[in-house]
Write a structure and sequence with these properties.
The chain is α+β, with helices and mostly antiparallel strands. 45% of the residues lie in helices and 23% in strands. The strands form two sheets. A four-stranded antiparallel sheet has the order 3-4-6-5. It has a two-stranded parallel sheet with strand order 1-2. α2 packs parallel to α6 and α3 packs across α4.
Length: 149
């Protein structure tokens, strides 16, 4: 629990920006260097990321930004659509949204390692459930839902 309390807190958008840059296969050092130098790609994905915001964060809070990249982070406030986007960008998995009132959730098949990574970044207020019979090889179907509805 203390690990979660000491982790850098990032906005959902900043987390998505970092994860979209990680998708290039850059090491932590290269990601930090490119952001510091402003040597960033033009994003043509559906998200239309503008990495200038991330560069500004690295100037405004350099120690926190470096810790977030090297040691991990927790999202300050996760939304259901943001969780699906994070899963898509960071884990390269397609998640299914359930948006019916009172049943809101995100379902996705993950490995144990992927589940742990997702669990480490989720903001407070979300929990991850699984049903043991819902296994697919090494992947398990997980349901991410708000603690309170």
């Amino acid at each position: 629990m203390t690990d979660a309390l000491n982790r850098v807190k990032l906005s959902q958008w900043d987390a998505l920006l970092i994860e979209s840059l990680r998708a290039f296969g850059w090491s932590d050092e290269e990601l930090l260097r490119r952001v510091a130098e402003g040597d960033l790609p033009l994003d043509e994905s559906e998200y239309e990321f503008d990495y200038k915001q991330l560069a500004a964060l690295s100037v405004e809070k350099p120690e926190e930004f470096e810790r977030a990249v090297r040691q991990g982070y927790q999202i300050k406030y996760s939304t259901i659509r943001g969780i699906r986007s994070w899963i898509s960008i960071a884990l390269r998995k397609e998640a299914v949204l359930e948006l019916e009132e009172g049943q809101e959730s995100v379902e996705v098949a993950l490995t144990v390692t992927e589940k742990s990574r997702l669990e480490s970044v989720l903001s407070f207020g979300w929990e991850i459930h699984t049903e043991p019979q819902a296994t697919e090889g090494e992947n398990v179907i997980y349901r991410i839902e708000p603690i309170q509805r």
